[in-house]
Amino acid sequence: MDSGTVIHRSQLKMDINGTLCLENGIPTITSWPYRLAILIHIFLTFSSLVFMMVAFFYLRKRLYFHKNITILIVFMFVSASVLSLQMLVMECRHIFISWFYKHPCDVYVPAEDCFPYLLLNSVAIGCMTGAQVCMVIERMIATYLMKKYQKFGGELGTILVVCTTMIFVWLTYETFWPGPSEDYYLTCISIPKESAVKANRNFIILISLNLMCIISLILLNAINRPYRKRLRFNLADRYQVEENLNTTQYICTIVIVQFVILTFYGTGTLLLRTFKAKFEPIFHRQLIMFVYVVPFFTCILPILMIYIVKQGVERRNRNINKMVSHAATGTHGRDNYFHELLKQWS
């Protein structure tokens, strides 16, 4: 971080007239591109929360996935909601201070005030990615225990949620220990200098997990696809194959979207740090704010999930219709058989 983004407490005490803040903080936070970036974050995070609520009421009676996947989807939604809520509060505070500060140094936020936001941000992003990894693990188990898996309850999903939360809480604790420093930050997105190396490590871990999920889901899809072509199925086996194929494809869509967004954010941040000397300090800080595109994922997620469920229901109905056309004769018999299968597959 440059001296304009982070100021030590001792510097503020010596700077009675706020000269340092007037030279660095005020020109940055009051510039229209910087404010525009904050307003975009506010719009995206607020929209995310609204879309999450709409998606929750839309999906609560329409989720057709196995109970374990449903638990993991809810876990991902909760993580995204926590991330959006904490960032909405943080950015509203920043935009308010940028217009209504009394002293030039009021635009800087103490590390102890930023620390809760930083911890929640780190845990929430980790849990969102962790939820996707858990879905891949769940689909692996569902594929290799095909005949037994439909009898499973939601215990596996609950165990995966607890383990994932504990892992990322510990990783966050280990990254930001021993707690807030005596620095003041222009934005709470800033990572403390002492934790920068570990934070970069965590980010690489998240992107690597996303990439591993994509590869694993492609392999799972390749494993399940030949089963569909076999003619001899009982109803339970056919249902499990269809669920494995559909669920892996939909999870892969979510993982790819997050992978693209996180990779863009990570690559952009890395390039800005590498070529920092080529930019004016204020312009560099503005670009850092625009490169933070994580809220785009939380905004897209509920919309994507509604689309996935809608497409999934339509695909399920088409698959049942294909089976019905070979298993029953006559319109009345076909309709009755269709509804019986729909009940068993729901």
Describe this structure in words.
This protein has a single domain, classed as Rhodopsin 7-helix transmembrane proteins (Rhopdopsin 7-helix transmembrane proteins). A 3-stranded antiparallel β-sheet has the order 1-3-2. α6 (111-144) packs antiparallel against α8, α9 packs antiparallel against α10 (235-274) and α10 packs antiparallel against α12. The chain is built from 13 helices and 3 strands. Residues 326-330 have low confidence and may be disordered. It is mainly α. The radius of gyration is 24 Å and the shape is elongated.
List the helices and strands and how they pair.
Blueprint: E1 6-8, H1 9-14, H2 19-23, H3 25-29, H4 32-59, H5 67-100, E2 109-110, H6 111-144, H7 146-149, H8 155-176, E3 183-185, H9 196-229, H10 235-274, H11 281-291, H12 294-327, H13 331-345
Antiparallel strand pairs: 1-3, 2-3
Helix pairs in contact: 4-5, 4-11, 4-12, 5-6, 5-8, 5-12, 6-8, 6-9, 6-10, 9-10, 10-11, 10-12, 12-13
